[in-house]
């Protein structure tokens, strides 16, 4: 059973995201460890529509998802939804937390295998987002991956530059040819669901 989706994310979008992530991981030559319970940090997750996708892609042998967002209402919705719809091999905790201040959350472990951010919003406060990326990289284990998706071409490039500037290694960046176009933008601006993905490795 799949979870209800929000107005801006459909089940078809999530199916495409699932396939896109798997294809990108394969192209990057990343072999996800078998028999390992994955620790995944979902940054600025909102309603966490992608939770089942992340469980399937990154945690077939078990996964602990920690979703963080500053918006109390969205976190409340995420908690309610994923109590019912999360796969059996997955566990999740959703916390109201400013992702630029992860250092204030002492209970959060420092050994996440994956940090994920969907539709990062870099040009809405670049210093804040750089801080979020920096905090996330510090929470990863030695082989940890930071994975982002983006709506826009230019914003994606800004994020690539910022994250590499923090010392992360860009493993792969890929344009999603199957992403669904969105039209809530000025004329001439291209926006689409999970338009790009980038995978970084902590150095």
Walk me through what this model shows.
The protein has about 200 residues and is an alpha/beta fold. The protein has one domain: Vaccinia Virus protein VP39 (Rossmann fold, 3-Layer(aba) Sandwich), CATH 3.40.50.150. It has five helices and nine strands; from the N terminus they run αβαβαββαβαββββ. The protein has helices at about 10-25, 50-60, 70-85, 125-140, 155-165, and strands at about 40, 65-70, 90-95, 110-115, 140-150, 170-175, 180, 190, 195-200. The strands form two sheets. A seven-stranded mixed sheet has the order 3-2-1-4-5-9-6, sandwiched between helices. Helix 1 (about 10-25) packs parallel to helix 2. The radius of gyration is 16 Å and the shape is globular. The chain starts with 10 loop residues before the first helix and ends with a strand. InterPro entries: Methyltranfer_dom, SAM-dependent_MTases_sf. It holds the Pfam family Methyltransf_31. This is Methyltransferase domain-containing protein.
Topology of helices and strands:
Layout: H1 11-27, E1 38-42, H2 51-58, E2 63-69, H3 72-85, E3 90-96, E4 112-117, H4 126-138, E5 140-150, H5 153-165, E6 169-175, E7 181-182, E8 191-192, E9 196-201
Helix pairs in contact: 1-2
- Secondary-structure content class: alpha/beta
How would the global form be characterised? globular
**If you compute it from the alpha carbons, what radius of gyration comes out, rounded to the nearest whole angstrom?**
16 Å
- The largest sheet has its strands arranged as 3-2-1-4-5-9-6
């Amino acid at each position: 059973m799949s979870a209800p989706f929000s107005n801006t994310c459909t089940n078809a979008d999530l199916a495409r995201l699932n396939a896109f992530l798997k294809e990108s991981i394969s192209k990057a030559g990343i072999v996800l460890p078998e028999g390992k319970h994955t620790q995944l940090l979902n940054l600025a997750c909102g309603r966490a529509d992608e939770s089942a996708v992340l469980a399937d892609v990154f945690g077939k042998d078990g996964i602990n998802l920690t979703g963080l967002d500053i918006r109390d209402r969205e976190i409340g919705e995420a908690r309610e939804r994923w109590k019912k719809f999360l796969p059996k091999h997955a566990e999740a905790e959703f916390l109201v937390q400013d992702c630029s201040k992860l250092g204030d959350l002492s209970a959060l472990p420092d050994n996440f295998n994956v940090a994920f951010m969907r539709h990062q919003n870099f040009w809405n406060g670049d210093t804040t987002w750089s801080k979020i990326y920096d905090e996330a990289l510090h929470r990863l284990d030695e082989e940890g991956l930071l994975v982002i998706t983006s709506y826009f071409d230019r914003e994606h490039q800004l994020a690539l530059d910022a994250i590499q500037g923090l010392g992360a290694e860009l493993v792969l960046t890929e344009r999603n040819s199957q992403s669904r176009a969105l039209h809530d933008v000025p004329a001439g601006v291209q926006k689409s669901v999970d338009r790009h993905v980038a995978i970084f490795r902590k150095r």
